[in-house]
RNA sequence: GCCGGCAUAGCUCAGCUGGUAGAGCGCGUGAUUUGUAAUCACGAUGUCGGGGGUUCGAAUCCCUCUGCCGGCACCA
C-alpha cells in the first residue's frame, strides 16, 4: 500500500472515517467494506457529487456508496446508460446515423440524432428490441480520459462532427471522458453503471420522436429526438404509463368539448369561441377578480383594442414585436396616407396614456390601474395549444404607478393578494422566483439595488423560500414570477410582478412631487392569473372538469323519476334559481339511472332526484358528484344549503 | 417558424392492394313511468378538411394550401 503521505481520509454516512490510499476508487472502498457491497455498489456520492465507481478519489471527502436501493442515483444511472444504449442500438441498426447529445430528463432521457430518413413508430419498436439485446450482452462499461486533440481526431475520423463540436465546447480544465460499452463508444461526462446488463430491461419504453434544433438554436440543423422513459422496475413503469393516461383524461381540450365549454375552428386559429357553460366559468372568475381587485385598491379601466402604430413605436414594441402583432390598415377618406394600427398586444402603453391625462401629484400615488385587457398576439402556429397558448386572450392586468419607495409595500400587498386568489381557486402551493438585473439594462445601479432589495424584502415578509434567477430580469427592471402546482404535481407559471423604469421614461409619465418638481414614477406591471383563458385551462385540468360549486357552469340538476313529479321539479328549480343557483330541470322521459349517468359524466356537482315519495313529503334526494350515497332532505333546506355552498370564496362567511 | 404525424357523421373511430362510405355513442320519432352511472324499437346522418393532378373511375395514389396533434424554437 501507499505510504502515509498519499493517504486520504474518507468519511462515511455514519460519521466514521477511514484512511485510504489517494487515488482509491469507490469500487475499492466498497470492496474493503464487504464483498456483498462490492457486488451491489453502482456508484458513489463523493462530497455531494455523483461519482463513478471507477473514478479515483484524490483528497479527503465524504463518501456514500450507492446501490440500486438509492432511488435518485440509480434512476440517474439507469436513464443515463439507456440514453447511450439507445444511441448504440440506433447506430447498430443504421450505422450512418450521427449521434449528438442525450441527457437525462424528468422520468427518462432523450437522445438527438442526425439522420436523413425520419424515424417511424415501427423504428422505435425495432430500436427497443435492439436495446434489450444490448442489455442482455452485459457489455462492460469502460472509461478513459483522452487528450483533447486525440478525441477530436478520433471523431473526425469517425465522421461524428457533432461530437467534435461538443468537445470544443468543453472548458479546457475539464477532462475529455471517453466511454465504451463493448465496441461502441460515446463522449460522456459520466458516471455510469458497470455493465449494460445492470439496466432493467423491462422498465423502459421509447415514447416518441420529435424534431429538435441542434444546440437549441433555430438557425442550426433540425435533428430527430427520441424520448424514452425509464424506472427501476416494470411496476414503476406501469404506474407512470397509468399516470399519463390519467393526465390525458384531464386534458382541458377534451373536457372543453365534453362539457361544452368552448371550441376552436379554422377561421380563427388560437381564438376561443366560448360556449354558455365555459363563459359561465369565465364570468364567475372575472366577477371574483373584480371584487378582489376593487377591495385591494385598484381602479378598473378599459382601453382601446386598435391603436395607431405611433404609440407602439413610442413604447418600443413596434421595433421588437412587429412580427407578432396583428396589423389593421384603414383608408381614411381624407387622409393622404393609409393609417396603420395594431391590435394591442399588451395594455401597458394604453395605461400610461390614462395616467398621463391631467397632472398627477405624489398624493395620487400609488395609482393602481387595472384592466381585463383583451390582447392579441400573432403566436407561431406551432406554439398554439388549446386555451394554454392562444392568439387572443385577456390578461388580469394592472399597472401600479408609484415612487421607488413604494415598491416594497406594493409588492408585499400584491403577494398577499395573489396568495389569497390562488388559495381561493384551489392551489395551495406556489413558488416564487426573483429575476435580477441583466447585463444590458436601463436605470442606475442605485435604483436597481433599491428595487431588487424591495422585491426580496417583500417576499420575505410572507415566506422565507424563493428562488433567485440572477441576470434573468427584464432590461427595464427586476421581476418576480409565480408558479403554482396543480393537483397532479405539474407547475404552471401564472403570476408576475415586474418593476419598470423604462416605459414611464419612453412615454413621458410624470407626477409632481412634494418639492413641486416633476418626477418619473416607477411602473409596476403585474398579473395574477396571467390570462383568463390559460388560467381556466389550468383550472379545468386541476379539477379534471369537476369544478368547485361556485365555478361549476351547471350547479344543480333536478331530475324527475316519474312524470307525476314534473311540477314539483319545476318548482324546485325555480326556488334554486331564486336563491341564485344555476339550476336546471331534467323531466325527460328517461330512467333515473340514465339521467344520473348523463349528469355525472357532465360533471354536475349536485343532482336532486324527485319521485313519488319526495313529492308527497316536499323533499328531494340529493346525490353529489363522485358519491354513491344519497340523502333525502326537505327542499327548502337543500336550497339554503346549496346557496351557501355556491358562494364564491370571497363572499362566503368564514 | 422548424421536424414528424394526423384530418371520414355532432363525438370516438373502421374502411385491405383505387370500383362513388360504415359501427357505437349522440340526434329524431314512437313505445315504456322508470328509485341513483346507459330501457327498447324504428329512422336520418356525410361536399370523406380545401384546391389541383394521375386514372375509365380517387376517401384511398401524387402535389399544394389550411387546420389539428407531439416536440423544438418563441412567449413583451
UniProtKB/TrEMBL annotation:
Classification of source organism: Bacteria, Pseudomonadati, Pseudomonadota, Alphaproteobacteria, Rhodobacterales
A biological process from GO: threonyl-tRNA aminoacylation
Quaternary structure note: Homodimer.
Organism: Tropicimonas isoalkanivorans
Cofactor details (free text): Binds 1 zinc ion per subunit.
InterPro entries registered for this protein in UniProt: aa-tRNA-synt_IIb, aa-tRNA-synth_II, aa-tRNA-synth_II/BPL/LPL, Anticodon-bd, Anticodon-bd_dom_sf, Beta-grasp_dom_sf, TGS, TGS-like
Sequence ranges assigned to domain TGS in this UniProt record: 4-67
Chain's gene name: thrS
Protein name (record): Threonine--tRNA ligase
Gene Ontology CC: cytoplasm
Amino acid at each position: 500500500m501507499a505510504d502515509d503521505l498519499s493517504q486520504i481520509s474518507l468519511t462515511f454516512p455514519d460519521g466514521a472515517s477511514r484512511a485510504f490510499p489517494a487515488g482509491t476508487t469507490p469500487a475499492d472502498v466498497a470492496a474493503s467494506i464487504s464483498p456483498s457491497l462490492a457486488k451491489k455498489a453502482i456508484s458513489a456520492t463523493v462530497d455531494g457529487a455523483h461519482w463513478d465507481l471507477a473514478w479515483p478519489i484524490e483528497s479527503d471527502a465524504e463518501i456514500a456508496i450507492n446501490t440500486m436501493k438509492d432511488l435518485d442515483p440509480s434512476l440517474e444511472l439507469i436513464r443515463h446508460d439507456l440514453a447511450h444504449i439507445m444511441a448504440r442500438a440506433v447506430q447498430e441498426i443504421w450505422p450512418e446515423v450521427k449521434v449528438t447529445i442525450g441527457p437525462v430528463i424528468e422520468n427518462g432521457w432523450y437522445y438527438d440524432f442526425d439522420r436523413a430518413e425520419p424515424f417511424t413508430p415501427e423504428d422505435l419498436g425495432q430500436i427497443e428490441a435492439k436495446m434489450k439485446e444490448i442489455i442482455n450482452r452485459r457489455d462492460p462499461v469502460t472509461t478513459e480520459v483522452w487528450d483533447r486533440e486525440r478525441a477530436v481526431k478520433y471523431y473526425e475520423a469517425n465522421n461524428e462532427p457533432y461530437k467534435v463540436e461538443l468537445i470544443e465546447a468543453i472548458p479546457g480544465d475539464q477532462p475529455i471522458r471517453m466511454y465504451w460499452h463493448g465496441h461502441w463508444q460515446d463522449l460522456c461526462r459520466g458516471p455510469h453503471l458497470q455493465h449494460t446488463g445492470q439496466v432493467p430491461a423491462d422498465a423502459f419504453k421509447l415514447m416518441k420522436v420529435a424534431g429538435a434544433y441542434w444546440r437549441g438554436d433555430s438557425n442550426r440543423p433540425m435533428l430527430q429526438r427520441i424520448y424514452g422513459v425509464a424506472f427501476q422496475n416494470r411496476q414503476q413503469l406501469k404506474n407512470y404509463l397509468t399516470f399519463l393516461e390519467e393526465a390525458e383524461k384531464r386534458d382541458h381540450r377534451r373536457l372543453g368539448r365534453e362539457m361544452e365549454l368552448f371550441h376552436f375552428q379554422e377561421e380563427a386559429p388560437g381564438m376561443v369561441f366560448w360556449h354558455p357553460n365555459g363563459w359561465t366559468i369565465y364570468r364567475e372568475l372575472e366577477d371574483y377578480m373584480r371584487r378582489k381587485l376593487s377591495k385591494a385598491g385598484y381602479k378598473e379601466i378599459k382601453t382601446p383594442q386598435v391603436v395607431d402604430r405611433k404609440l407602439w413605436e413610442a413604447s418600443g414594441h413596434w421595433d421588437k414585436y412587429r412580427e407578432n402583432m396583428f396589423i389593421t390598415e384603414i383608408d381614411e377618406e381624407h387622409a393622404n396616407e393609409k393609417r396603420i394600427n395594431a391590435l394591442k398586444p399588451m395594455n401597458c402603453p394604453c395605461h400610461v396614456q390614462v395616467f398621463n391625462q391631467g397632472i398627477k401629484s405624489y398624493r395620487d400615488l400609488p395609482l393602481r390601474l387595472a384592466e381585463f385587457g383583451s390582447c392579441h398576439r400573432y403566436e407561431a402556429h406551432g406554439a398554439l395549444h388549446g386555451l394554454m397558448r392562444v392568439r387572443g386572450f385577456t390578461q388580469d392586468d394592472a399597472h401600479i404607478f408609484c415612487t421607488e419607495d413604494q415598491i416594497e409595500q406594493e409588492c408585499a400587498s400584491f403577494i398577499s393578494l395573489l396568495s389569497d386568489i390562488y388559495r381561493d381557486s384551489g392551489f395551495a402551493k406556489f413558488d416564487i422566483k426573483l429575476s435580477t438585473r441583466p447585463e444590458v439594462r436601463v436605470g442606475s445601479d442605485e435604483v436597481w439595488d433599491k428595487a431588487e432589495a424591495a422585491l426580496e424584502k417583500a417576499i420575505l415578509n410572507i415566506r422565507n423560500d424563493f428562488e433567485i434567477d440572477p441576470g434573468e430580469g427584464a432590461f427595464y427592471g427586476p421581476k418576480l414570477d409565480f408558479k403554482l402546482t396543480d393537483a397532479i404535481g405539474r407547475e404552471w407559471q401564472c403570476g408576475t410582478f415586474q418593476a419598470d423604469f423604462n416605459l414611464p421614461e419612453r412615454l413621458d409619465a410624470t407626477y409632481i412631487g412634494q418639492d413641486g418638481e416633476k418626477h418619473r414614477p416607477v411602473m409596476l406591471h403585474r398579473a395574477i392569473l396571467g390570462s383568463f383563458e390559460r388560467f381556466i385551462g389550468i383550472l379545468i385540468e386541476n379539477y379534471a372538469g369537476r369544478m368547485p360549486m361556485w365555478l361549476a357552469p351547471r350547479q344543480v340538476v333536478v331530475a324527475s323519476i316519474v312524470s307525476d313529479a314534473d311540477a314539483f321539479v319545476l318548482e324546485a328549480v325555480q326556488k334554486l334559481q331564486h336563491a341564485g343557483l344555476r339550476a336546471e330541470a331534467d323531466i325527460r322521459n328517461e330512467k333515473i339511472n340514465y339521467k344520473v349517468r348523463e349528469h355525472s359524466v357532465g360533471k354536475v356537482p349536485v343532482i336532486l332526484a324527485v319521485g313519488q315519495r319526495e313529492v308527497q313529503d316536499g323533499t328531494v334526494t340529493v346525490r353529489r358528484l363522485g358519491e354513491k350515497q344519497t340523502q333525502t332532505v326537505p327542499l327548502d333546506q337543500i336550497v339554503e344549503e346549496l346557496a351557501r355552498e355556491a358562494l364564491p370564496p370571497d363572499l362566503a362567511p368564514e
